[in-house]
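B., you asked whether I could sanity-check this one before it goes into the benchmark set. Here's the sequence:
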Amino acid sequence: MRPPDHATTRPPDHATTRPPDHPTTRPPDHATTRPPDHPTTLTCAILARDVVGYIGDCVHSCHFGDRIVVFDTNSSDGTQDVALEAGAEIIDLPFINFSQARNAALEMLESEWVFFVDADERVTPELAQEVGTVLGREDIDGWWAPRYNDIVGHVMRGAGWYPDFQLRLMRRAKAQYDPARAVHELAEIDGQEGYLTEHLIHYNYDSWELFHSKQRRYTAFEATTLGNDGVLAHPRHLLTRPIQAFWRRFYTWKGYQDGWFGLRLSLIMAGYEFMKYWWLLRGNAPRDPLTAGGASNGDL
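And here's what the prediction gave me:
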């Protein structure tokens, strides 16, 4: 089962909520909380690197789970201190790519269910309550949750950023991630999938500077991937692909529901589509940093 065509699976970026100041000294690698002795039904799992400004609120929103585990990929900004103080356990995890990291998390955990949450996301109380009502169902092994995206203070209603279903709640024994997908990873469920009605909140971009920085990186990655897959660009694509991208976001994905904001974003994304095919045509896309260095908040 797949989400509607207008759903997107972009990795999360930055949050606008800031927790109080915390120590910035990274604790020793062994400074982790031990898992409980009794079996757990649900673990909330968070991949993180250098997200000291976001991890606290994320962990606090996950306290409905039996365990909260932060899989840290070499943070140096105090992320582990904040996560521990907020009530999470820490597992240090070497980073290869995002699919590998999530598969490693699934292998290390022991609970029947795992709910993946990104550091710049928040689980609403309504979603937490709904999750509790579906864990006992035997006919569904993976659940998609809709997600509100907050972009520079505007909560999106269309343009590909809503309902933005994410496959995050999964029966651990029935789930794995495709290792071929280095980013924009997607779980594969050996069983039936269902849809929740309550939302995650994703504090996506808190500034236009961050938005453009991330979109440029995503565009470089996509151009490089297309080139590696043998896709050839034609000069006509510099015109047709941006037009198609604008139409898709503003009309098909109902960007018009966001008014002038949706129009602006649709035009901006059409511009990045032009950039992607320009780089593909010239064969000189910038080196993509998305798969290097670990799972930072802006990359998940």
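One thing to flag: The longest strand covers residues 42-48. Otherwise nothing jumped out at me.
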